[in-house]
């Protein structure tokens, strides 16, 4: 006689099991079927969905702020509402607004902006120094609005140069044609 162990969703074969175990498996299958249909009914219930432009916190206690982004690369101005406890970039994306970004962790300068009005709290912005923060630079991927805020996107290379340029060179690198001629002559 082959020993068969049915899974929770299988109906046991009555000719291979005792009547007591058959009753157990039938009861388990019936209870599972009841809980599955209850779960399906729960999934079918209507859920109130707030449109993304009028975001409100699930608790209703988190203040929201109007964020205006002047995208200088595309020549577009975006206005949207962001709760104080949400990243500006993530909220923009949830509202189908495309803004520049790369790392999403505050380590690069792709989403760098210059604050024109308002305040952004950015405790995790490793991609910009305290000095640049004081000059009004912020990173949208790890920035939380503290007030209504107006920002404009910046050229990533320019912000990167402001952040790291002084460590790698003492000013812009000049092209040295004489050195290039010497290098090419060696080949």
Q: Could you explain how this protein is built, in words?
A:
With 187 residues, the chain is an alpha+beta fold. The protein is 32% helix and 18% strand. It has 5 helices and 7 strands. A 5-stranded mixed sheet has the order 2-1-7-3-5. A two-stranded antiparallel ribbon has the order 4-6. β1 and β2 form a beta hairpin. The termini are far apart. 20% of the residues are buried. About 14% of the residues have low confidence.
Provide keyphrases for this structure.
single chain; alpha+beta; 5-stranded mixed sheet; 7 strands; 32% helix; elongated
Task: Write the element-wise H/E pattern from the N-terminal end onward.
Answer: HEEHEEHEEEHH
Distance between the termini: 83 Å
Coarse shape? elongated
User: In what order do the strands lie side by side in the largest sheet?
Assistant: 2-1-7-3-5
